Amino acid sequence: MKLLKSIAILGLASIAGGVNAADNLTVYSYRQAFLIDPILEKFTQDTGIKVDVVFSKNGIAERIQREGKLSPADIVLTSDFSRLIELVKKDLVAPIESDVINHNIPSQYRAPDHTWYALTKRVRNIYSSKERLGKLDINYEDLASAQYKGKVCTRSGKHPYNVALVASMIAHHGEVEAKQWLSGFKANLARKPQGNDRAQVKAVKEGLCDIAIGNSYYLGKMLADPKQKSWADSVYLNFPNQANRGSHVNVSGMALTKYSPNKDNAVKLMEYLTSPIAQQAYAEVNFEYPVNPQVKPSSLVASWGEYKADALPIYKLAEYHQAAMKLLDEVKFDL
Amino acid sequence: MSTLSIENVSSAYDGTVILKQLNLALNQGEIVALLGPSGCGKTTLLRAIAGLQPVTEGRISINGNLLNGDGVFVPSEQRDVGMIFQDYALFPHMTVAQNVLFGVRGLSKLERESRLDEMLTLVKLEGLAKRYPHELSGGQQQRVSIARSLAYEPDILLLDEPFSNIDSQVRNEMMLEIRQILKQHNVSAVFVTHSKDEAFVFADKLALFHHGSIAQYGLAETLYHHPKNRYVAQFLGAGNYISVTQADEFTVDSVLGKINSTTPLTFNKVGQVVGELLLRPEQLQLTLQDDGNGTIVERHYVGTACQYWVEVGKQRVEVRSQQLHLNIGQNVQITAQVDPMVIF
Amino acid sequence: MILGLTRSWTLAGYIVAAILILPLLALLVQATMPDEAVFSHLYDTVLPTYIYNSLILMLLVCVGSLLIAIPAAWLIARCDFPGRKYFQWLLLLPLAMPAYIVAYVYTDLFDYAGIVQRTLRMLFEWQGPHDYYFPQVRSLGGAAIMLSLVLFPYIYLLARTAFMEQSSSLLHASRVMGCGSWRSFWRLSLPMARPALAVGVALVAMETAADFATVDYFAVPTLTTAVYDTWLGYGSLAAAAKLSTIMLLVIFAIVGFERFARRKQKLFQKQTGIDESDRHVLNGSKMLVATAYCSVLLLLAFVLPFVILCQYAVDYFAQSWSAKFFEYSLNSLYISALVSALCVTISLGLVFVRRVSPRRMDTVPSRLASTGYAIPGTVLAIGVLVPLTYLDFGINDIYAYFDQKGPGLVLTGSVCALVFAFCVRFIAITIGSIENSYKQISPSLDMASITMKQTPTNLLWRVHLPLLNKGIFAGALLVFIESMKELPAALLLRPIGFENLATHVYQYVSDEQLELGALSAIVIVLVGLIPLIYLNRSLEQKN
């Protein structure tokens, strides 16, 4: 009986431990906690509001939906726009009215209905081998061109970054043409899609392929890592489609949950995240482009040069998200 | 009033009838053997008495207390029976002392100790109280299990083939020893065995089982000499069955010639075949005689006696004889001494 | 059996079994829900490939494991060569290695950028990938090899025991009748070991089906990863549940095959084993081949990955040796201990009822409860979340009815869901080991006990429990190591923000930086070694 009793006590204790204290803010984050921890610590210092960040690579929207009105989440941080759109589509977020945020974030980087806000911009770049190709003036369309047969590397097509890129191709060219392009792209792959963006740069360094697609900030991260610096040094970063519509830009962002238990404090945190000080930190830590126009990118990011961004509004991409997923399955991009 | 009374007990399991309308009564201090080949239901009855086997019909009572029947079912743990198993069922993680005292309850520490001593003395295992079962010989384990089942003074002792794992060299001695213990304590016991020899040595009465019913119940001698049917006769010993014709009130005719009965025969069928006469091998005598009615065709020496196969006419009969000098091929005269005559 | 056993035992058994089978039922219900055509889209496009990959992977891993394990088992059971005594248990070590760790290490070695291909390029002055052919590590075949390397010990263990239990007299008979040892092996030993091999193959197939991390890392989409993607990528629980039922069909087919093969096991089991003196003493080249075979196998499946893992851990020690590392370790230990204790307690109750009950219906609960083992973690997660979410809402609705503030997500928001899922998945292990221990306890002990006026509970405490302690301990240990290793269920069911060693290591594997998680991986492996050594010791004692 003693055994049973101690099991019961352990079980109860674990339940108590699993439920969050009510006063704290809870952030569900698709972004790794270490990226935002310093910013949040500063926020806690300034306001006295404690923040619990819980990180998950996957399934946050699904989770909030299931948790419904019992969800402890106040804010969701995402690493790309499709997750924001998913939250909106599933009716899991609440619009907010904040002059501070509206002042800090230009209108093309927030939802017209105030359900979500972008925090940073990230360009989908094409890396080229310094040794074998040099700097390129390249378009996304060229990824399907025969001259790169067997020379292209990418991560899984189903990754949100790539899905967004495919969605933008559909937006510009229509589904039929986009599918042709995607098949051509697949035919050019040096290997089956695998790994993350970093691994693609590494593959270029090793000579497995000559060009790879990847977000620009990965280059910054690699330069900062002693082991990976040589990979980064072996490639040029090219902003695609500069001669025409501009490079595809994705955003990381945030949204207030529909059933947030602490709406007021949550809005305070969201305002803080758009403030110059937080935006600066974002820009420095993760080599991304801040959305707040008062904040400049880090010097390293600035050294990659100016670029022209695709003018297509972010929320437009949302309309083609599902179509992009299906297209990827149809051409069996990852298989 | 009998200690154990079994009335019209039937048992079925998985749709198969195992016991059919059994009746059995046992007096205080009596030892009864349930005898029969494997699968005849004798163990089932033993377990039914212990409450380990469901009974579909009938009544079981001990000392007048109804245990089974009329909607009553007393669980095993409230029946106050002792049981001894083929594998002794000693608890391997307990010492001899712990095993023996397992079922003893409501005694003070001092009383428990004296009960233990008493029991160990009874089964001659003094000084082994601290041993574990695996440190004992088979015979010693058997005695521990006896001590254990007597220690809590059950109303009745049930023994399930308790001697089948004992070396045949010491089995007889062991049985007599335990029988003496039971008699000394006036314990009533039911004993299951498939061996008639064990039953003869250990039990007062035999209940011979046949397909879930009792073929015959009574003293061992009665069953041996007055079997009710051929099954009983065959189970308890070898026998020759010889077709006989009634000659007169006291005599029958057979291939062996005329055979006399001391009591008058019950048939009135002079000149007619009345059946087959049971002749046990030791009921026949052989005399060496050139014009005898039989010829020896096989001879086996079995120690104190010889087993002969004798051809008489077209029939072969088995004879057990103290005469050891007869040889194969010799002619012999066979005579029969039967009292009373058992004819099927 | 205890005829007087009250019905409350039966009722309790059925309630426990119903709770444990609930996820399976919930899954089936969920699979009938509408899914906005996600499933039919998958069906039209990638599903055939997923199924093909899953089936081929299972086939390859089973064949691979058999090919590796049978010679090893035969050498250990029937031959004598230097080191045999050590290889006997050393060859079990790979079981403690999670497949995805082995996969990571070998990718690091054999990938295009790995040391092997770099060296080859340097030696032959090849310029690029088009100058030579080298098999892809990250492929279906690669995954099959990795999984075979860590799963073969299941078959090895069972085959070894089977070979050892085959009696010497049978082999002598075969020898006398003119069969050489090679022919005896094919005509006698192998067919007699078939039931054991079937059990091993079924285990391997189930483990393969449940694997998530290896195929995910190798970008080989299978049904398991498809369930994960469909749920979290498409956000369709119903479509994921539909995929899951396909997977369950495959798995129950395997279980059926195993049952069928085991049908004859009794026939083959012999009490007398092989004598020490009947082992072929290998000499000369045969001895070298035997020793080399076992050494290379051990090296590839355990030593090499483990050494590399240690190397990573040393290089990145400063980053890994942190408060987080201790937190994750504690989480793992605590969850595993809790799950082991629960599994033991519940299985003890279920198996006890089954043992002593006179009612045939009482065999059902322990059978039902054991089905969880066949359900892969990803699939199980769906089945667990659905009913627990309903329960959570129910609990809060009750609070709301009384105008109280509800406790929130007590079940799905805490480790409850995780612990429950682990219990469902692993209780079959403790049920199995306790059942096996029960077989060693003569039923007459039960009868003796109850005729001596003991209640059923007394029988359990005074007689069964002390005699079952070894089986209980072995079962608890196995559940413990499985709970340490189990990844997909932990990944999907952990309370948000909760990490244990397995999820922590997986995160680094998927980020291609296992170096940082190596320390945690080593802890998983080391904890896994303890039960293996114990298991082997108790097996040896039996022999």
UniProtKB/TrEMBL annotation, chain A:
- The leader peptide range reads 1-21
State the protein's name. Answer: Fe(3+) ABC transporter substrate-binding protein
Q: Which controlled-vocabulary keywords does the entry list?
A: Signal
* Organism expressing this protein natively: Shewanella intestini
Q: Do you know which SUPFAM superfamilies this protein is assigned to?
A: Periplasmic binding protein-like II (SSF53850)
Give the matching Gene3D superfamilies. Periplasmic binding protein-like II (3.40.190.10)
The keyword Lipid biosynthesis is annotated on this UniProt entry: no
Lineage: superkingdom: Bacteria
Automatic annotation (TrEMBL), chain B:
Q: Which CDD domains match?
A: ABC_Carb_Solutes_like
* Occurrences of domain ABC transporter (ranges): 4-236
Question: Record's InterPro entries?
Answer: AAA+_ATPase, ABC_SmlMolc_Importer, ABC_transporter-like_ATP-bd, ABC_transporter-like_CS, ABC_transpr_FbpC, Mo/tungstate-bd_C_term_dom, P-loop_NTPase, Transp-assoc_OB_typ2
What keyword terms does UniProt attach to this protein?
ATP-binding, Cell membrane, Ion transport, Iron, Iron transport, Membrane, Nucleotide-binding, Transport
| Gene Ontology MF annotations | ATP binding
Please name the PROSITE patterns in this protein's record. ABC_TRANSPORTER_1 (PS00211), ABC_TRANSPORTER_2 (PS50893)
What's the protein name? ABC transporter ATP-binding protein
Please name one Pfam family that this protein belongs to. ABC_tran
From TrEMBL, chain C:
Q: Which UniProt keywords apply?
A: Cell membrane, Membrane, Transmembrane, Transmembrane helix, Transport
Q: Name one Pfam family in it.
A: BPD_transp_1
Instruction: List the subcellular locations.
Output: Cell membrane
Is the Transmembrane helix keyword given for this protein?
A: yes
Membrane topology reported for the UniProt record: Multi-pass membrane protein
Where is this protein chiefly located?
membrane
SUPFAM superfamilies, alphabetically?
Answer: MetI-like (SSF161098)
Annotated transmembrane regions: 12-31, 51-77, 89-107, 140-159, 196-219, 231-257, 287-314, 334-353, 373-391, 411-438, 459-481, 516-535
Q: Where is the ABC transmembrane type-1 domain?
A: 51-255, 329-535
* Listed Gene3D superfamilies: MetI-like
InterPro entries per UniProt: MetI-like, MetI-like_sf
* Family listed: Belongs to the binding-protein-dependent transport system permease family.
What is the official name of this protein in its record? Iron ABC transporter permease
